[in-house]
Structure formats: C-alpha cells, structure tokens
## 1
Amino acid sequence: MSNQLSITGTFLGAGSTEFVGRDGTFATRKFYVDLTTNPEYPNTPEFQLKQDKVALVDNLKKGQTVKVSFNLSGRKVVSKQTGKEIVITTNDAWKVELITTQSAVTANRPQPVSAPAPAPAPVSAPASAHGAVPFQSQSGDEDLPF
C-alpha cells in the first residue's frame, strides 16, 4: 500500500530550519498550506521537510499556489509529561512544486471538444421504374433495409 499523497493549495509561509536529534544535526523545517474551501472552517495543515529537502520552500512567496507531494506517517511514543502513550502524526513533504498561473488556468479549463465530422453525403442510386430509389447499404454488405 502506498502512502504517497499530494495536495494543491496556497503557500502561507515557512519556519526557519531547526537542527534536532541527539547530536543536533538532523535538519527539519515546517511550512503551511491553505486548503480552505469554506472560510467558516479554515484548513491549514502543517508539513515538515527533512534534511536535504528543507530548501524546497526557500523561493516561495506567500499566496503562491503549490502542489505538495508528501507521505503521511505516525508513531506511538510515551509522553514525558503524562506517561501515557500518544501518537505523533506528520505530513512529510518530499516535493513542492510551484503551480504557475498559466498551468493552473489550463488545468482547470475544460478542454475544447472538436466538432463532429460532417455526415457523409448520401449515395444516390438510380431510380426504379416506379420512381422509388431502392435501398443501398452504406457498407455494401447487406441488402436488407434494417
């Protein structure tokens, strides 16, 4: 089962790079994307970049539309404050793409539908002695009118 996900939203900003871990060499950086579709219920998830990925948001500006590819991960730990087991969930981003205005417009615009080809001209058949035109199949392999 793959847990690779992606979303498109508005970049809100990023924090500074922090170095964590026992020896303080593991780089992490948090950033935020607005996914709100109803202003009454804001939706602004936090994403985390790790190690060599922390620079992915360096050149982004607030308000730009981005596509974030990420993995959803979680782990159980024992809280130092309460001694109870808790779950820590993170959205680990591994790719952040700037969606340009042109590509966003193109992606949302319905694709033009080509006009149907004109119907072929009817084949004229010689009139019978009574003035009626006998049936002639378009494919030529049938002699029945139905």
## 2
Amino acid sequence: MAGICAAASAIAGTGLLNSVAHTGNSLAAHRQYPGYAGDTLYRDQPQAVSHARVITAPGSSPVTFTKEILKRSISGGRRRKPQSPRSPANIADLSSISVRVTPTLGR
C-alpha cells in the first residue's frame, strides 16, 4: 500500500497506519479521519516513510516516494539489506529504470 499527499490521509482513515511508522502532509490532516489512531507513529519529515509494506509521503516529496516504491519493486516487496549507493548490485538494479515526471497543472 502506498499513498502520497492526501492519499496518505485517506489511508490513515482506514486505520491501516495505526500500527506502522508513517508520514503525510500533516498530522492534523490524518486526525480529520475518525479511523485514525496512529499519532505516536507519525513522522513529521520531508521524506517518504516505508514500514511493513506501507509507504507514505507528504505531497512535497514525490522523489523519495518514488524511490521507496522502486526499491520495493526491485526487491519483489522484500526489504533488502542496505547497500552502498555505489555498490554493483544497486547500479545493476537501477540502471534500467527511468522516471518521467509530468506536471498535471489545472486538474
């Protein structure tokens, strides 16, 4: 499960974030949903948070959000042992991936 910006708050409303570390646009946005009770696990940070197969990010962090999704996709959803960014395994894994960001203004 992954959610960025308001989608992270929508996931919070389902109760899914009540037992995992997470972030989003703000704790106040999550608290607007009656099903949310994960205050102590909220991380107020400008990067994505990945924990227990759940990825969340504030809307201002699309790059780290995408990075966490790609890390999960490459590893088949399993957490991998952290490696140096310059290790051959990381270079081989990421060499065929390209990310294209297209602005969607006016939606």
## 3
Amino acid sequence: MSQEKVDRNKEAKRNIKKTLKVRRRRRILGLLATVLILFALVGGGGFYGYQRYQAYQKTHMKSTVVDLSEISNYLSSVTAGQESK
C-alpha cells in the first residue's frame, strides 16, 4: 500500500506542469464563461427594460396645448419698436 502511494506521488510530480496547465485553462474558461453569462444577463435586462420603457412611452403620451399668440404679439411689438427708432 505504501509503495502504491509513493508511485502515485512520483507520477503526480512528473505531471505537475500538465496538471497546472489544465487547472489554469479551466480557471480561465470558467472566468470567461462567467463574464459572458453576466454580460448576456445585463444586456438582456437592459434590452427588456428599454422595450418596456418604449411601450410605456407610446401608451402614456402627454400632449400639451400652448397658445403662443401672446408671445408672437410681444415680439412683433418689440421689433416694431426697434424699427421706429
């Protein structure tokens, strides 16, 4: 049993570079997958929210009627006053 354990340790030491390379690759791929998933979730949430906002804007349009005749009259009187000087 002890010899078996020693042989396993020797094999592990021989393959340490390969093992570290595999672990590094898995860590990087896991991180990349996490970033892509988060990006998709945030982007999807933003897209969904924007669509809901646009739909809300279409259904809740507010229109205001403004009578600008008084401003036009005032501007006409101001320009007429400047021309008479």
## 4
Amino acid sequence: LDSSRIRNTVSLAAASSRDLLLVTERYPVFFCTSLSSTLQQVSRRTLSSSARAQLENKVPHKQKLFQEDNGMPVHLKGGTTDALLYRATMALTVFGCGYVLYALIDAALPKKKA
C-alpha cells in the first residue's frame, strides 16, 4: 500500500495523557480511561504473586473409570446421573415416536361429520 494513503486514512491524536483517539475515514473509535483501567486491573491479576487455590486433577481418575473393562456401556459409566439422563432420553424418545404415530393416524383417517 502507498504510505501517503495509509497516513491519510488513519490519523492518531493524543486526546490527553490517558486517552487515545483513533480517527479513521468512516468510523471514529475512542479508547477511554475505563478501558485502560480495565487493562491495568487484568494485568495486575495475571501478574500477581499470590497463588490461587490448586484444584485437584480429576483426569487420571476419570480415565481409569472410563477405561476399565466391566461390561458396562460407556454412556452409563458416569454413575447415577448418566443412568437418569439415559432413561429420561429413552422415555422422551418413546413418547415422541408414539405421538408421531398418533398424529399420522389422526391425519390419515377422515373425520366423521356429525
């Protein structure tokens, strides 16, 4: 691109020591002090020396649970929650199939005129 064209398209002007005004041909964008204060807070949090509480690594336990050969299907190895979700899904599926059959039969048979 032509450098004079770039210079004409984007011009930077310092509004104050904390504010920066970026002016383009069509869209003025204003970065205010709230953005700079937010960035300062984020940088302070990520660079702070205080350590967060360490979480227990559950991945090895879950790998062992799901990889053991106990004849159980993998979608039920999660325990009671998986069993309840599986049964609820099957119940909704059976109900949905029954309702579809009812709707098809109702639509296929003509109504009796009284």
